[in-house]
Batch of 2 targets.
Target 1
Amino acid sequence: MSKPLLNFAVKDVLEQGCTFLDRVSDEVYARRLEGPFASSLGAHYRHVLDHFLCLTEGIRTGRVNYDQRHRNPQLESSVSYARFVTERLIDEIGGVTPDVLQQQCTVTYSVDYGDGDAGAVRSNLAREVMFCVGHAIHHYALLKLLCAGEGVNLPYEFGVAPSTLKHLEADTAGRG
């Protein structure tokens, strides 16, 4: 059986993460930035990985809890460790079969600012893979802006949604 499209989407987005990691030093990755984004590039990238790590737990247990992220400080400070975890996620999620992706799961994620407990909703693992990929792309857009301020160049497509890239390509082809 061929790999589902979602496996390739995860591979593509996490390989973009590897491209980012290849272009930053530990010092730039871990340095706390000034201004309104008073965290490090590593903290932003760790946040992306945390969501994929919650997803892998959900693949094993049927419960995805995005509120119980580990927030491992080593993922924020070590490019090589972040790359190791990224490659592990590519392998782990890349090996998930279409049948597993269609399994139901319960998702917990705080979405309100009140004092109440986080709500749990029913979903399926394929939907959560899509969420994690989209979430990564949006955070990559922020990372791309922060990297530009640090003199780190990233590819054009880094942080741009696939639908936007396709739209821009079709628009350019229509003008040509």
Target 2
Amino acid sequence: MIEAKVRKQLDQFSLSAELEDSGFICLAGRNGSGKTTLLRAIAGLLPVDDGHIRIDGVDVTRLPAEKRGTIMVTPNSFFPHLDVDSHITWGTRLKRMKPEEGKVSKVKTELGIDFGGPVRHLSLGMRVRVALATALLASPKMILVDEAFSTLHERDDFIASYRKLVSAEGMDLIFSTHDETDGRLAEHLYLISNGTTKRQ
């Protein structure tokens, strides 16, 4: 469950946004509407001027990013020097966790990851698939996906598979997009314009 009511001034841009929901959430708006600013605030990558952010009832407003239980995925969220399998398990190793037997294989199959080798040799879409699998296996409370889904081929099918995996793990997810029709792929849709959100 995410409860966010935040304000942030960035030069001439003002963010004054509210979001309260759980599950698979779509945040839609044009370029410059405040999508990335809001996601970065929730992730702890951008301090807010006023307001609060609660994740599963815990106030994380002043916590550093690494203590919020969130992972943010962008089209550039990958480590080019790692091979695919090492990348996918990077988050679990960082947390000194060991995935359940067969879980890595299941996630790779569900997400259509049937390739290997160094991540730097992959296409952008394949890199994003690997980054999203990495985030999922790290078991955060919430995954924040900033425009990364838009880089994928067979996007609708991938998002449906990812949504099923996220739901099975009991995680929440917010993904941003410029196309509000992507709301059909989510449980909840928020539109954002000029830094202000509106639940649909």
